[in-house]
Structures are given as structure tokens and as C-alpha cells.
Amino acid sequence: xxxxxxxxxxxxxxxxxxxxxxxxxxxxxxxxxxxxxxxxxxxxxxxxxxxxxxxxxxxxxxxxxxxxxxxxxxxxxxxxxxxxxxxxxxxxxxxxxxxxxxxxxxxxxxxxxxxxxxxxxxxxxxxxxxxxxxxxxxxxxxxxxxxxxxxxxxxxxxxxxxxxxxxxxxxxxxxxxxxxxxxxxxxxxxxxxxxxxxxxxxxxxxxxxxxxxxxxxxxxxxxxxxxxxxxxxxxxxxxxxxxxxxxxxxxxxxxxxxxxxxxxxxxxxxxxxxxxxxxxxxxxxxxxxxxxxxxxxxxxxxxxxxxxxxxxxxxxxxxxxxxxxxxxxxxxxxxxxxxxxxxxxxxxxxxxxxxxxxxxxxxxxxxxxxxxxxxxx
Length: 377
Description:
signal, glycoprotein, transferase, Core-2/I-branching beta-1,6-N-acetylglucosaminyltransferase family protein
């Protein structure tokens, strides 16, 4: 039904005036007044009526929730290998902790992440061997950051599998993850978060140590059997490097999508004392698939100058921690290996961003110099 307009009501009022005159002659005055007042009231009510707000369209439905990552490794890696190779903005750094113990330097890392005002530029992922107990539990920035994990042991392929699992979850979790850093529980930062972020995101290459003709290389290559690596991995292509690296999103996808070289390293070793797949698989894969896509050096400092103790490098004690140690570690220069030539490159001088191996007893000494030394660049 159409609503009356002011004009139509006014016309109706004019048409009623002759009747009002008639009523003046034939009816009492009260009837005339009642008729006119009634018409006036209708016009007044209409004019005072507030216009109704236009109907608003319903809000758009929320975006569909992403399905949880697949539980089995094969499906997980296959799905992760199909993500967009280009990170969205703002670019983020994925900090991936591979551990079998509680994180002894969690307070230092908590301060590291919280002393920046760029809280949206990083993500944390933890692979925690479920056969171990974690007391105290992961809290603060580490709360709810543990991915579905499996047992991980040295001298087996399981440590490498854990790193691939971390990469897959980080790729699927956030399309902004641009650099993927693998860390151990004994690692500490050597610079502020802002310095680290700028160093990593300004590079379009991975930082991974790739060395050739290292002592014992042939024994490592043949640890699964004299010809077990053939034909996919010839000895001439076999490389050695630190297990701690920073990979670009491109190389992270390369790792999780590899089903050619990985099966060769995913075999049990016959000689355990030369079995370190986590130090061989990643350098070999990057060397074979994209040798020019990386800076062949690690940005995690480690001291082998005193030799190896059970396959481990030097461990720093609390009595050694101080400003001088941090400055000394910062001043060191990475070892570069390009095109199979070991040694130091004459052009690059990338900064060490992290260092290991520190004893858990160092935490108080490190916290004491964190703000004035470690986080001052």
C-alpha cells in the first residue's frame, strides 16, 4: 500500500474545505473543528515521521577455516610443497626450535622477542621429542607452539625428519613466513631481533654451510653401504655443513617437496660413528638443486677449535659468559664454501646472528648482559 505524501494530504485538505462550509451551515461548530483537526493531525504525524534507515546487506560470511595439517608425514610434506613460493607481506621469520629438552634459555629468547615493537614479524615453532618430559612446560611466547612431533635421535635420519616436519608446518601455518631458521636449545642470539630480522629478510638467498672435500667425507657418504647412495647422490655431489641454517621460502619448499634425494639419506647407517644425515642432507640437496641460490655459510657460530667431544663442539660455561665473549663471537667471520672451493670468500662478511653451544648454567649470566650487550647492536 502506498504511503500518502504531503502534497496528497494537502490536496485532500483543500477538497474537504467545501464540506467544511456545508457543515458550517448544517452542523454544529464542533463537527467542523473535529474534521479539520483530524486532517491537520494526519499531516503533522506524517511530516514528523522519521525516515527509516535503508536496509543493510548482511555481513559477508567469515572465511573458511583452514583444515588442520595432515597427521602423516608424507601427506603433510606433499601439501606443504604446494604452497605459494612467494611470501606475503609483511615478511616474517620462522624460528624453529628442534629439541629433546626444555628450552634452558627461554627467558633470554622471551626478552629477545619482546624487546621489539614488531610483534607481527615472527613465528615460533617447536619440535619436541614426545619421549621426553618437559618441565617446566613451554610458556610465554613458546606456549602452544609445539607442532605434532616424533622421536628424534642423533646418528639416525629422525633429526632430519624433524627439521623437514618443522618446515612443513611453518610453510602451512603462515604464508608470510619468508625465512626459516633452525635452532637448538643450546643456541643464543648474538644481536637484537630487529638486527636479525633485517639481515635475514634483506637477503634473497639461504644461509647454509656447503663444504666439499671435508675430512671423512667418503666415510659419511658410504655410511649406509658402499653403493647405497647411488645413483641419485654421487660422491662428487656429496656435501657437508652445519645442521643449523636459515632457508628461504623457495628452499623450504624444495626440502619438503624432495622425494628423490631424501630416500637415500632416510636409510639406517651401518657405521654409526660416521652417520650424521642432518649435516649432509640439506647441504647436498641445495648444492645439487640450486647451488647459486644460497650463501654457503651458516650464521650460527660454533667453536670446533678444541676438537670434538662425542661429536659435540665446545660448550661455553657460565664463568666464560660476559660482554667480551659476545663481542668476540660477533667479530668472527663465517667460513664460506663456493663452487666446491672451501675457505673464506674475499668479498662477503656476513654477521653471525646466533651462537652455540651454551650450558644451561649460563642463563643468569646471559640475562645480566642481555639488554646492555646482546641486544645493543
